[in-house]
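Page 37, continued from 36.
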């Protein structure tokens, strides 16, 4: 994902997070100064975090950058709002613990930071989930993925049998892993496919 450090710098440097803009690699094509950050870059950053609150904050910022790219102009402002939220340290610590223990319902219910909605905090869940491949690891549920699920006729409310989103998210994750096992692919790849299709799930749709 390409991002523009100059766009983010005024929002991050006053909060002591400007150094995160060095994550990833410099782009050799396109606009000068752009950098690229991948899911692998975020995973590599996670491996060195440990329990350090500053490290968790840096990881969160990297996730927000990766999730925003160059298309979400609100990303820097929303990230700044989250970094200025007094709940930040507690929310990042407790939701990571819930995800790593497999309690995705609790993680969803506990995540509350200014400027961060489901599309981004589920990216945080996916980023901090370091469980092995046999676990139903956290997945991203953003607008594009949700649009594809709806186009396929799958309803999180019907699948969960309840209305509250924490349960619906957990059922989405378990369902996706079930589908992935049946198809012989990873749930992360299936999530990416739904994201890429963005609701266009039939061959004749353009």
């Amino acid at each position: 994902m390409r991002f523009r450090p100059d766009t983010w710098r005024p929002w991050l440097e006053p909060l002591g997070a400007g150094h995160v803009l060095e994550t990833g690699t410099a782009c050799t094509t396109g606009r000068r100064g752009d950098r690229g950050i991948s899911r692998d870059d975020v995973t590599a950053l996670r491996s060195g975090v440990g329990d350090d609150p500053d490290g968790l904050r840096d990881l969160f910022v990297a996730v927000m950058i990766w999730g925003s790219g160059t298309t979400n102009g609100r990303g820097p402002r929303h990230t700044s709002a989250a970094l200025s939220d007094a709940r930040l340290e507690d929310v990042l610590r407790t939701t990571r613990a819930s995800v790593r223990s497999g309690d995705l319902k609790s993680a969803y219910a506990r995540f509350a930071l200014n400027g961060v909605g489901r599309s981004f905090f589920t990216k945080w869940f996916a980023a901090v989930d370091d469980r092995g491949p046999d676990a139903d690891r956290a997945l991203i549920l953003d607008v594009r993925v949700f649009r594809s699920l709806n186009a396929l006729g799958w309803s999180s409310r019907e699948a969960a049998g309840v209305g509250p989103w924490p349960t619906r998210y957990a059922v989405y994750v378990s369902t996706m892993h079930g589908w992935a096992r049946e198809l012989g692919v990873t749930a992360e790849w299936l999530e990416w496919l739904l994201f890429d299709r963005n609701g266009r799930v039939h061959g004749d749709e353009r």
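The chain has a mean pLDDT of 93. Flag for discussion at group meeting. The first strand starts at residue 2 and ends at 3.
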